[in-house]
Amino acid sequence: MLECGHRDSSDGDLSFKTTNSTNSSMSSDSCSSYSRISFELLASRSSPENLSLKPHHSSDLAYSAIRSATFRRKSGLTHRDFRLIRRIGSGDIGTVYLCSLTREHNKKYREEDYDEEEGEEEDDRLCFYAMKVVDQEALAVKKKVHRAEMEKKILKMLDHPFLPTLYAEFEASHFSCIVMEYCSGGDLHSLRHRQPYKRFSLSSARFYTAEVLVALEYLHMLGIIYRDLKPENVLVRSDGHIMLSDFDLSLCSEAIPAVESPSFSPNSTSPSAFPYTRSHSSKTFSCPLNRLFRSKKIQTLGPNRLFVAEPVAARSCSFVGTHEYVAPEVASGGSHGNAVDWWALGIFIYELIYGRTPFAAASNELTLRNIVKKPLSFPTHSPSSSLELHARDLISGLLNKDPNNRLGSKRGSADVKSHPFFKGLNFALIRTVTPPEIPGLRRQKTATFHQAKPKSTAFDYF
């Protein structure tokens, strides 16, 4: 049985008890109405000892406010420490709300950490968060509790500038709540629709692809296969850089870190072909680089050596993903592994550049048939520039229907990064590159989080 979950962000009826209010303290250009959850039972608290907060930069005011509130409570935060502002999205397993700490926490935080400026509006001093609320009883009926648990498990593992920071987690009645970063710039799907001809320039597509590639590289180092890459799940922070979201369809496996030469043959089975392969990592695979570079032998490696940590042994028979983005091995009902993320990256690049996905059809069934059987084609016969020529070559390598020959399937990001499409780009310094569009801090505080009606559905079949 195929289950489809529409990613609807409209303000329809909620699937749990709510109380409507129009007394929003947001500024005049924000939503004037919102829904507040009415929890009927006592909440279990989130203990500071059980949740390790990880700020990605020293000026993370949202982290500082949460840290101050967490240690002030001592016994942990609950839903009563947060003020829901409005709903900003909903998915197959939960609803996401824009929220802030209560005025009591914000007042104490301001008094402790900095002086107030007279005449400044209160909302301009608030830090905003995204709270994902999951109805555990509803998920139990749909037999999807494991998906919510998997997302929470993965969020606790992450510590990367292009991935979410988990600020707090707690239970309230039969609801499970996780508090994460709020991205004020919307998602790349909405941003693409605001571009001329509803597609990004080659340079913009190159930038966003590079940041997504770095995020995928980190996930694969941890042994996590994302399995739901698409523009709707790539959020834009206030500084214009990206953040991947939604990990409930992800698969946890293991990665074997190794250092290889560019001429290394991944198909070789000779023991000498893996001179620098390290031992298996744990499922939480922490700091592989630190372990690797403790070795004097590896410290003296030549500049052409590549660090590789790809979960090549991971296998799953689950039928998961979004129709237009699933790989042929998934569409045909077979087992799959890490290569599905590299296929999805190829579809992702194609959509950013050309404004549509290459195998989309009038129905989901026809789309899946095209993915399996239809050859890849591009809107025009000839590319308009050398950069587009490189982009097409990269897309063709990623959209190889044979997962064993697909670019990235053996050495992951190490092979994808070396493609001429990224020539001259320093991945290690990508955070210092000015993004194509910067939403700005003011928008983070006041603008409505826009999400267009989804053009496809996410599904899972177990």
From TrEMBL:
Q: Which Pfam families match?
A: Pkinase
Where is region (Disordered) located? 1-31
What keywords were assigned to this record? ATP-binding, Auxin signaling pathway, Developmental protein, Kinase, Nucleotide-binding, Serine/threonine-protein kinase, Transferase
Q: Record's InterPro entries? A: Kinase-like_dom_sf, Prot_kinase_dom, Ser/Thr_kinase_AS
User: Reaction catalysed by this chain?
Assistant: L-threonyl-[protein] + ATP = O-phospho-L-threonyl-[protein] + ADP + H(+); L-seryl-[protein] + ATP = O-phospho-L-seryl-[protein] + ADP + H(+)
GO-annotated molecular function: ATP binding; protein serine/threonine kinase activity
- Write out the biased-composition intervals (Basic and acidic residues): 1-10
The source's superkingdom equals Eukaryota
Could you say which protein family the record assigns here? Belongs to the protein kinase superfamily. AGC Ser/Thr protein kinase family.
Q: What is this protein called?
A: non-specific serine/threonine protein kinase
**Which organism was this protein described from?**
Manihot esculenta
